[in-house]
Prior knowledge:
alpha+beta, 4 strands, 5 helices, single chain
Amino acid sequence: MKSRLHIIIANTVSRKNSTNDGQDENPDSGNRTLGTDLRTVPWRPRNRQMINLAQSSHIPENGKLPTLRDVPWLTAFAIRGFYELVRARLIFSKLEAKAIPERNQQAKAKSLANQAVPPATLARITYVIPRLSDRFPWRSDCVIQAIAAQNWLSSYGAASEIQIGVENPKDGEFGAHAWLVHRESVITGGDIDRYHVILAESGEDN
Length: 206
């Protein structure tokens, strides 16, 4: 059985392709599967290297636990992260095929020109979101994490984009993944090197 993520991604890509081809689409189609085989969607190479925020000096080193000096910021970011993940879970439960491109467009429209988020804030959002998600009693997969971080960044007036990719089916079992990009940084989604981009509204120019 296809996961909800796979269905949403297939519908999103199918909707985008039909719009680009000038085809009419039933606006009431909701989350029904539109029949897109993601293996046939053209892959888009990434046009630049992404910054690895996991190596930031503003968060604990990989494999190391937080120290006492991390407690103040970690407490504040954990509380905010919890709120954003719960909010994102509610959004995800009603997510339609058209929602991901529309969310990206809305985030860009609401952003302030050249608004930069401090590197420490970006790194700490990247650190907190997946660790909280792993501890929730419900699933908080890649799309939920991306929505949560996108809402968080939008509150600073910063644009970001949810992008979607797939693993090469020739290399093993097919898999879909979503992540959030802000400028040259991957905010959620971890290591995306093995994924081929199939949906990116702005060509990774956020």
